[in-house]
């Protein structure tokens, strides 16, 4: 089979190589899956660079989230068991963790309903306890993680403010349903959010960026507000001033979705059931901006690394090279 492998650490476009390799052999409790679609996530970038908390042995195949097909023809969602990731024709995954792919979504959309939407659901509902009528601010609202949070926030009855970088991403955020869109490249984020909220600020802030975005969050979080720390796509990890949290009476909530798979896997299944229902009635639908063939995966991962994509970019092995759409 064909699979992308990382033999040394660095930028994805430089260290990912498409090779002919043997299909992986499932271990105890694992199954072999035909990859129907593999969604690109920022952890794939971090793993290629050697900056992720999970460091598979070299060489490894990236791709942490797929829609796959079992030997008996079932469509399932899975997190491949590294080092045999999803940017390949076949992957292996733990049988106990497979989730049924929603019938309402195609392969690429289904692949994108997993990590980003699970993270959004746990962040907004389990950690922040978002309520209808509250104001939710989402950083990087046009991205893969942010777009999921925007849709989930709207489905929960929140007023959603999306922060984006650039006019193109602003248009995407509006299409996603953001009530207010702030372009950080042309507007003062803090001033714009305060104006939009009448000076009150946002009740819940969803931050997958870190760095300057986190600093902005502390200036616009409302009384008894909650800042959900999801990741650090901006590259720098902030050091919060806890005296500021005390004086303004807000909460800083960490979210590591992967822990639920080991700490409370029943919650992951419950979340998937909720997401499947939301997808069935059209309340959420993953924004798939590109479907690329397997041969273009490295370049696509690099575009995600460079922050120039919107929504989700999904690798579809059945597509012929040059057939991206």
Description of the structure:
It is a single chain. The chain has helices at residues 12-15, 42-49, 107-111, 115-127, 144-155, 167-176, 189-196, 212-220, 242-248, 260-263, 265-280, 297-306, and strands at 2-6, 16-20, 30-39, 66-69, 75-78, 90-94, 99-100, 135-139, 159-164, 180-183, 202-207, 221-229, 251-254, 288-292, 312-315. The two termini are 24 Å apart. It is 33% helix and 24% strand. By secondary structure, it is an alpha/beta fold. The chain is built from twelve helices and 15 strands. Strands 3, 4, 5, 6, 7, 14 and 15 form a seven-stranded mixed β-sheet that branches. Strands 10-9-8-11-12-13 form a six-stranded parallel β-sheet, with helices on both faces. It has a two-stranded antiparallel sheet with strand order 1-2.
Shape call: globular
What portion of residues belong to β-strands? 15-25%
Order of helices and strands: EHEEHEEEEHHEHEHEHEHEHEHHEHE
Unreliable stretches (pLDDT < 50, length at least 5) are none
What's the total number of strands? Answer: 15
Please state the CA-atom Rg, rounded to the nearest Å.
19 Å
Main sheet makeup: 7 strands, mixed
Q: Give the count of helical stretches.
A: 12
The average pLDDT score comes to: 95
- Measured distance between first and last alpha carbons: 24 Å
- Please estimate the helix content: 25-40%
Helix/strand/pairing class, anyone?
alpha/beta
